[in-house]
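Lab notebook: predicted structure, single chain.

Context: the supervisor wants predicted structures on file for every construct in the current expression panel, including those that have not yet been purified. This is the next one on the list. No modifications to the sequence; it matches the entry in the shared construct table.
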Amino acid sequence: MRFPTVIGSNLSGNQYSLPRDFEGKYGMAITAYQRLHQSSVDFWGPLLLRLTTHYHELHYCELLTLPQYGWLERSLIEGGMRGGIADKALRARAITLHIDAKEFNAAPGQATTEDIQQTGRDSNSMARQR
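Prediction complete. Output recorded below exactly as produced.
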């Protein structure tokens, strides 16, 4: 399944066009749709981080989906998230996507927004999985 093209920025302020800007030869992205998903992201993140220390071509990021709010709401929410994450490396891995989640998941066979999604890729392809 093809990963849709989306624009987002990490909590350090860098903008990304995904999937083009996914880093590393191999990658894993965890997509969270709701605040309650953070515990699942927190479970998988440390494991993936440990894997990146052993496999240097592997990179992972966290995709945090938010509705398409206006500038003020985005600033408040992202500022709150930045303030709550002291770890600069984690801020760099956390990419916020202001998207319509249903449209993002519109590809056949995609998961709902009721759980996190894991996206794995190699240098040639991208596969999404719930």
